[in-house]
Structures are given as C-alpha cells and as structure tokens.
Amino acid sequence: MAKTNIRIIGKKGSKTCGIIVKEANIKRYTGKKNKADVLVNFGLTGKKMEAFLKRFPSARRIPTINKYCGYSKLNVINKVKVKDVRVPDSKLTLSGKDNKKEWIEKKFNSMGGKGIRLARKKGRMVKKYYQKFISNRYYELRIHMFLWMDDCKVQKRLGDPKEITWNYKTGGHFVTVHNPTSYQIFKEAINTSKVVLETLGMAFGAVDFIVDKEYNLYFLEVNSAPGVSGLSDHIYIEAFKRLKDLPLKEVLRYTRR
C-alpha cells in the first residue's frame, strides 16, 4: 500500500517543525512542483497563513490538517465552555465589583507564558483579556494529543507557587506521567482534550490544563505549534511517522478544505 504524500507547512524557524522534517522525513511544501496529497499546518495562523497562501496559492486546494487553528485564546475558552468543559472565568472587562487581585492579564495570542501578569487595572485592555487566577493550583498538565494515535502522552508541569506562570524562564519543568489511564484525573484530561480538538476542528495539539488542590481540572489553552525539549521531541517524531504510514483515505478524515 502506497504511503500518503504528506508535506508540512509551519512558522519559519520553528524548532519542532524542523525536527519533524528531519526525523520523520516529512518534507516542507514549496509549491506546485512539490506535490502533496495532504498538508500539515504546524502553527501558521492569521496573517502568516494569509502570506503563505498568497505565496503558494496551489496550497488552497490541498486538504490540510489543522487548517484553521488561529483562534484567540479567549475565543477558544468560549467555544469549549459551551461543550461543558470547565475553564477559569475569563472576560474582557473587570467591573467595579471585581477584586483585581483575583485576576490575571493574558494576551489573546501569545506563547511561552509571555504577557501574563497580575491584573493592574479594571475596565477593558488592548489585545488582552482577564482570567481568574487559580490560586490553589496543584500542578499543570500538558496532553500531547493526536487523533490518529491510539494513545497520547501526558506530562505534569511543576513550578514555584509564588510564580504566576510555570514556563522554563520561571523555573517550571515537565515530568512524564506513566500509565496515565490508570488515574481518573488524567483520563478526564485525555477525554477533554479530544473534545477540545474536535470542537476546534483540529487533529493534533498540546492541550494545557491546571489541576487545583481539590483535583478540579481547568482547561487553559491548546498549542498548535508547541515547542519541544528532549523530553517531548520523540512524541512528535513518532506521531508524524505514524501519520505518514496511514492510507490516504484515513488521513483525509483529519483534514479540512
């Protein structure tokens, strides 16, 4: 059975995209001469996607995995909330009745925890929204989810309770969860991740949660182009090698036109 001819598109300089190209042997799409049955979009959104399609108009006709993944973080929160997914309270404006000490500021579009800080004022902000801070957080979770895989990888992220974000710059670090389906909280996160991706029309992503000290699970965001470290690069290599080996008919199930 012939393998599906998959090509990848992504942000210039993306380390993860480069790893997939090199280790999973999935070439980049470079126009008509570089024929493809299916494209994989690794994080191109908004103006960057528009610029790519203007440069390579032939790509418009090719079925694409994660074709639409440019929703703002607040938009994503509102979309999945309708599906009964638990999320932290999030809104555009703080009123006079709100205690700003209980809220944080987040950018509509950001990576790596950039722009997250304690709320400094009330009212409405430019290109930002407010989110209720989960002060009794226990740990964070990242679910590396691929709808074409039978299982997914689960990682805990730990950090200093005094820090608002637990990214690498503030000392946060991931540890791998082994046998995650043996624990109810991880099974809930896995099932919720599937709901999130299907709601957004995505086939893969790194889905982030907070778990509080009462073991309540809160969805935070989904990353369409997650960065990797030595702890997670093999996850993406394995997943995209598997995708490349699937028959075209099956791969097309995960695409959008």
Taking the sheet with the most strands, its summary is: 5 strands, antiparallel
Helix content: 10-25%
Can you identify the CATH class of the largest domain? Alpha Beta
**Got a strand count?**
15
**CATH third-tier fold name of the largest domain:** D-amino Acid Aminotransferase, Chain A, domain 1
Structural class: alpha+beta
**Model regions low in confidence, pLDDT < 50 over at least 5 residues:** none
Radius of gyration: 19 Å
First-to-last CA distance: 25 Å
CATH superfamily of the largest domain: ATP-grasp fold, B domain
Q: Quote the beta fraction.
A: 25-35%
Topology pattern, helix = H, strand = E: EHEHEHEEEEEEEEEHEEHHE
CATH architecture assignment name of the largest domain:
2-Layer Sandwich
Trace the largest sheet across and list its strands: 12-11-10-13-14
Q: Give the overall silhouette.
A: globular
Number of domains: 3
